[in-house]
Amino acid sequence: MASSSAWLALILGIGFTGALDFNIQTNSSKLLTVLDTSAPVQELLYHIDVWRNEAASLALETPAPSNLESVIRSEVGGDWERGRLVLQLANQARTVELKEAIYTALWKELQQTNQIYDPSKILDFYVQLSLHTDVPLQLMELIYRAFINRSAQLLEAPFHTNSREATFPLVSSLVQRLTFSTLDYLRDILEVLYDAVLALETPLSVVQRLGNFTASLTQLAQANLQLLSREELKRGDPLVQQALQSNLRNLLKQPGFEQEVESSLQTVIYAHLPKDEQLLYTARKVCIRNVTDGNSYIYECPQTYLICSNVRDSKKAAYFIQRGHSSDSRPQFAFYSAFWRNRYILMEPATATANNATNSITKNVYSRTNINWWRVVYGNGGISLYDAATEKSVLCGGDPLHWDGEEHHVYTRHASELSAHQAECTWALEDCSEAA
Ligand SMILES: *[C@@H]1O[C@H](CO)[C@@H](O)[C@H](O)[C@H]1NC(C)=O
Ligand SMILES: *[C@@H]1O[C@H](CO)[C@@H](O)[C@H](O)[C@H]1NC(C)=O
Ligand SMILES: *[C@@H]1O[C@H](CO)[C@@H](O)[C@H](O)[C@H]1NC(C)=O
Ligand SMILES: *[C@@H]1O[C@H](CO)[C@@H](O)[C@H](O)[C@H]1NC(C)=O
Ligand SMILES: *[C@@H]1O[C@H](CO)[C@@H](O)[C@H](O)[C@H]1NC(C)=O
Predict the structure, then answer these.
(1) What is the annotated signal peptide range for this record (predicted)?
(2) 410 FRET partner, CA 20 to 30 A, in 104, 241, 273, 291?
(3) pTM of the full predicted structure?
């Protein structure tokens, strides 16, 4: 080993100072004169060969680049870390040809080591190489592709397993490593990955496995969106669409989503949700109206502090959306009157006597200064609003029995009654951001 270090240093014509701890003789005047800056690589190799063999057998063979390769390979000796040192030395090689020969030989050698199976290692090498300005683009591209291919191969494993509980430590560490790199790497890996897994697995299975992936929110956002845009998923299978939306909703649920995921990705994610759901995240203000009656909007009743379903008044009906998370991290929403500027739509806890088995309607929805959270459930062509605190009541309206003259009060029903009273308890959202 020591002697190959010496060879290497000599090839490169380096007078370095022992920082790399090689026990070598740097002042070999004989060689330093040979390692002329202008010498082409063949000639250098020739002289190295001369020097190496000391004796005169050299003239018999034509020197070949493989000599450099073998010197470098024995220097690296299957030890990835030593490759890093050799790469540092390349900086000091005097001709471009020599440098290129070193880079190429080094890559060949690294491929021989078992560690090439760990894509993070390839990435490290790639990153180090990219600090050198003179690495041939073709070589960079080759190494990059190897990194992408190997990463994709590794990530395939979870998609081919039946268990949704299995863990894959190598996958996790790669994904973790990728959080420090540009998203482009992940994008390229996913493209190769999806080519491979969608050829063998059903789209539904791929979507579901992705739903169990552990990664950063940004990575998961990217992975789901990229999957969404694949041709294989555009066949409109409703189960696949549902599974994808469920993956996206799981992302939105995460309290860090709005902070961590860049807004351009967020925008694309919202765009894949049903319109009502989208508005909850993208609109500044919304109006809440009867899903079938286009002129029946929620806002404060004219005479009382109750909430009514009134005729359209885009000013009074506009609510700012506040988004929050319950303690179990599910999203919840509050609606703050853009007109009154100090009141929310609030449900007062129902008193025990207020409802009984045959009629569980309660008029307990007010305009109040306290914040009040609602849970949004999507379905029946619109949304339903449950009180977030208990999830036992759902907001309904439209039954004239509970009106009072001009005041068309809304009310709550027991949550279990939703399916029997869908029309009464389903609302639509409108974008009222522009309302004054
Ligand atoms: C190498 O040679 C230079 C001058 O040629 C001399 O100053 C230096 O001391 C030498 N170093 C060693 C380690 O022999
Ligand atoms: C990467 O994979 C593609 C597709 O399988 C293949 O054509 C290419 O040769 C591979 N490249 C490297 C560097 O492994
Ligand atoms: C995988 O996802 C499914 C569906 O979302 C879920 O029921 C299951 O608990 C998940 N498994 C793990 C290990 O997270
Ligand atoms: C339940 O409520 C309805 C309507 O408010 C009322 O007519 C009925 O008597 C109540 N039943 C009981 C058992 O309280
Ligand atoms: C919507 O309007 C219809 C028709 O007037 C009514 O039956 C229904 O209960 C209303 N729903 C809501 C949520 O106001």
Answers:
(1) 1-19
(2) 273
(3) 0.75
